[in-house]
Design a protein that fits this description.
The chain is built from six helices and nine strands, in the order H-H-H-H-E-E-E-E-E-E-H-E-E-E-H. With 239 residues, the protein is of the alpha+beta class.
Length: 239
Amino acid sequence: MTFNVNVSTGGRRSARPGARPTLRALLLTILAGTIASGCSGCSRKLQEKGLHQHALNMCDALTHESPSSCRAEVERRFPECGRPFLDMETNFEAYAECLGFVLPKADSTPALFLGECGAPFILAKVSISLATTARTDGSEPRELGGRTQYVSKTPLLSKPDLTHLRLEEHGGVRFVLLEVSEEAAQRLEATTRANIGESLLIAVNGFEIAPEITSAISFGPGLFLAAPDAEIQELCRDP
């Protein structure tokens, strides 16, 4: 939350069918908000770097017209597609399609409500931890993205910080909206603002990714995550 790190709400996105078991695709769309909302305090070079990495990460979250060579195709097309998007001459949908991604067609059907719960009835296991290139007190080394990083043993956000969960379906694609406490949101925003260039280790139900922090995370209304095969029974327990 997507995995280019911002977890405020964004547009429709679909995860690659069958790419990972239930809920694992959640992680891969947490980060989509930053590029769409911009990074007013970032240099052009940093914006381009973040957008480029986000484009490659999209291969793990969206369907591409050339699945077996997605990253190579995105790398080839990025110079042509990225500049107009950064200059706000095109929208996210046009940008993604320029890169070769196949997006779900717009659907005017109202969102289908599938269930919700509040703490302490949330089952989804979520944690976000800071990962740095230099060792810090209270950290442990991990191999992330092919390099050693030092992950804080105390997460910035974890399951106790979740306050509400809602499962909806939009145009045939399921989404989870996670809300967190104000204290947790402020803590995550302050830490990411002070650690641009480092990484976050984001885990949902045992699956992990470690995207680079390119701007401070602002939760806005919450995390809006694609979860194509999620069921409310695995996200919430009965009161």
